[in-house]
Amino acid sequence: MVTKRIAHTVWEGKLLDGGGTVTFDSSGIGEAEVTWASRAQEPDGKTSPEELIAAAHSSCYSMALSNILTKAGTPPTTLHTQAEVGFQPGEGITGIHLSVRGEVPGVDATAFTTAAEDAKKNCPVSQALTGTTITLTATLD
């Protein structure tokens, strides 16, 4: 069964001085303001498409890595994943860097790095972003 998630944005005004509101329809978790300035300069309490991609990627990646480790018989105690999405006005997304720190009993650093690379390659968000360079730093605590 295919699941679908829905969000929508209402934008008002021109690109540089306008603004919008992103609403998370499926979850009902609320709304977030988005502006060009929050995308190309400082966030100032507002979000950007790149931050939303970072949130999606870090959560999807964590789920994928947890699944890989669990299937190997070494479920993680904790995974802390950060996704950093680079954006250059006029160019677009310049790359994504994933950083993961994990506490995984029974796993050595080599096995953790192998699982982390597998998750980077196979998480659905990584696959959706295949036109973007994705790098990874994996650290076992």
From TrEMBL:
Protein name: OsmC family peroxiredoxin
Lineage of source species: Bacteria, Bacillati, Actinomycetota, Actinomycetes, Kitasatosporales
Alphabetized InterPro entries for the sequence: KH_dom-like_a/b, OsmC/Ohr_fam, OsmC/Ohrsf, OsmC_Ohr_Peroxiredoxin, Peroxiredoxin_OsmC
Pfam families per the UniProt record, alphabetical: OsmC
Top-rank taxon, per record: Bacteria
NCBIfam families: osmo_induc_OsmC (TIGR03562)
